[in-house]
Predict the 3D structure of the following.
Amino acid sequence: MNNNRVRMLFVTLAAVLILSFAAGAAAKNPFPSKPIRIINYVAPGGLMDVTTRKFTDVASKYTDAVFVVENRTGAGGLIGAEYVLGQPADGYTIFAPTTSVVVQVVATGSDVDKYIWGFDWVSMLMKDPECIISNVKLPIHDWADIVKDAKAKGGDQIWVGPSTGGNDHLMAMKVWDKAGISAMWIPFESGPKAMAALMGGQGVAYVGNPADTTGRPDLIVCAVSSDERLPQYPDAPTFKELGVPDLDDEIMWRGFSVKKGTPPEAVAWLQDLVEKVANDPEWKTFFEEQAIEVVAYRTDEFTGIVKKNVEDAEKYFKQFGIIK
Amino acid sequence: MESFSSWVAGPGQTILPLAAAYIVAVVWIFVLRGPVKQFAGRITLDTGLAATGFLAFALTYGFPRMSFKGVDAALVPRVWASLLVALAVARLICGLARKDSPDPATGRLDKVSLLMALLALKFVGITWVGYFISAGLFVFICGLLLGYKNLLSLALVAGGWVAFSYFIFYRLLAVPLPTGLLLTAIFR
Amino acid sequence: MQDLIGLLKAAGSLMSLQPLFVLSMGTVLGILAGAMPGVSPSMGVALMVPFTYAMNPSMALVFLSAMYLAANYGGSITAVTINTPGTPSAVVTAFDGYPMAKKGRAGEALGVSLVASVVGGVVGIIVLILFSGPLARLALKFWPAEYFSLAVLGLSTIASMGGQNAMKCAISAVLGLLICTIGMDSILGVSRFTFGNVNLFDGFEFIPMLIGLLALSEVFTEVEKFNFAAESVAGSAKAKWPSLGYYWKLRMSMLRASLIGTIVGIFPGAGATIATFISYDVEKRVSRTPEEFGEGMPEGVAAAEGANSASVGGALVPMLTLGIPGSATAAVLMGALMIHNLQPGPELFVKSPEIVYTLFASLLIANIVLLILGLAGSRLWINVTRVRKEILFPLIFAFAMIGSYAVNSSMWDVMVCLGFGILGYILKRYGYPLPPLVLGVVLGEMAEVNLRRAVMMAGPTAIFQRPGSVALLVIAALSFAIPMLQARKAKQRA
């Protein structure tokens, strides 16, 4: 009697186990079947952090998938990249880099094949034009004056911005090169701290993006890298108008990348979702107010841009002696 | 000079720390037998600090050479390192002259070292069997090690900690505690 | 006048069930986030930002700002009870709070830290409301030269930490400064002492280092001394809570701390931790019994916590007037406002003044809520000091490890915590004080980076070219020299 009951129990248990395994194998769950983690390389409140959190917020309109945003900061994004590369390539861990991560990999002389080409660059979300920002309260605040002052000071003019070897530093080098001037880069711990330095008159120019001037009335965009004037900043001249060539499309992008070898269906799912979000009016207005162009580039186009970033960074960092 | 720099940046990075550790170990063994036995700990520690200073100073020569306006990246570390060496050597002289008070009496060093070993084990455990199992076991064994006798309440505390870390850290604060390589391999 | 009306209106609108509930939730979550080692105020607030998507902007602001305020207090709870600062800025609170708890005066320490927090919080916000304009202009006058001199002023406080063994104190501080140079140098991007290890590119993470140095070293030391057979019940059975008169005696300490905290808080490059060190130092110098600091002085706790909480108001000054966050948590708050389509900065006063007044009012009310909830909470926290050591120590270790892990979700940080625990234990065993080491780590980067920036801008004599910088250096020199001269005088007399 007792024995029978035990046997019955075992048989039932075995049956349940086998059935559940069979069910699992037969109906292979469509992607995603568990929460997806987006790994940020910036601290909470940083630009890309706000972007990813906004993304998950808007994406919840189009999918039931659960997103978890994690911040793994450090070494200009290398810590975050290293972490994602250590996870299985199953599409459940997404890296959220910006141009800065790519540029930083080159600047620190880190392994480009690992930290950049160990990823598939699957979705580019937006293009934020780079620009030069100056302080209206200072005597020198328009482009012509900056150039004149730079020539007079012969290399001692001060430009402020975030970290050495970052995207904005690279942009500054390009501008110096194309405009035929030289100046000094003084880096600060973060963009806002560098902007405070500009407000305090420590330097004459800050390299950033147009939206950096919103809410900071002393700051104006004195040159922007885009084909035409931005509708949101009609007073800001483009480099072309100012007579500085080849600076019509310098941008900071934000995007998503996944570890190389991620299954195509997971990639396709993410790219479709990005497309839907990119067309969402809430998402669009949020970024377009900041003069950011919302895009949904897929792997080919995005990889081309990343390749160009790497080449540019290598060229200019060598020219200015940041790397050998 | 140039060849020294490239040596420090290359093999020196391994050889120099090992050499420093070797010197400290030799000093330790030597003073344990010598006439300043009751100062052995102090002397070893001060030697260690001086060696750290020397090591840091030497390693600065391996930094990539680059300077904006004459401000070298190696300057400030060199200042701190040489200060450390100077101060530690001054302390060493005090110790050797027996001006300082002797080493503190040793307490339960056995328990302390067991505890450190247990912590190291927990560290390894987190990687392999995950946070929750290792943390639960750790709290339990650590309690035993410190001489707590009531096994039942100890088990309750360990269980309570696991529950607390799960609900507060893992769920509420979304801290991705490791589940362990072994467990992930089994349940995949 | 207009300010007052706006403020009262905003305060009135908060006096109903829903806002008060949101405010209390924010406070409770803030206290908890602050008390969890490894969860910094900025991380705690960031975790809760998604929950505010559904709220209207002013409710979101009420919730998050209450949380910000409470989190800065929360760090002191674990600092007092188990010597594990929940937030970096609570490290100084542990210097005297934990010795008080060890002597069975945990009730006093918890009470003082709470009341000082509330006083600091209120003073900071009043200063924010009244003087944010002129203070912001002052913040902009701070160039790298001034930041360097401020760091030197901070470092000069080791002169009063040393006591008899000034040399050990100096070694400890220099070791901290040297540790601080590990990682990518932030001016040139040159990697220093990293041995090619990516984890070291940014140096050691602050919180794991602190937990190791303070909490683990303390437990190792106690275990070494622990008499396993005899000791059974640790703390005293009955907690003593301070009376109103007790707090009244500390009023000047709290006020001084609040002002220092607010002023230092407005500089985006400084921060709450430096404010607490300076405030603690000032308190020690004005005290009649400076030698008792570090052994459990309520004035020490009041100085640290008052300055810490006052820095909240201070950090909001540049955020509201310049659009520059004054602290990491203010940066998160700014991000949250941007998600709600509000751009923090001077235009916020013009475009949506009601939001600004709501922020002010909710911070003021949050302080009152914090006082009430904190008093109730203290009755709970005090039980920690009654737990038997055989149980408490394993839990402290568990806490330290999970806290270190939580900062970056990284096992490397756990290793850093253990490593510094062992280092701290060895140093402590041979009489090297640890607070100077912590100070060196806190100020090393600020001193070096700003010195180099200043020299790049204006040449080797840069720090002597600006009056503000010179003034700070003179104060630093005096505060370094005076204790030494006094000690010599005392020796001559003896």
Observations:
- Residues 2-235+244-493 of chain C form one domain.
- The two ends of chain C are 60 Å apart (CA to CA).
- Residues 25 and 51 of chain C are 12 Å apart (CA to CA).
- Chain C has a mean pLDDT of 87.
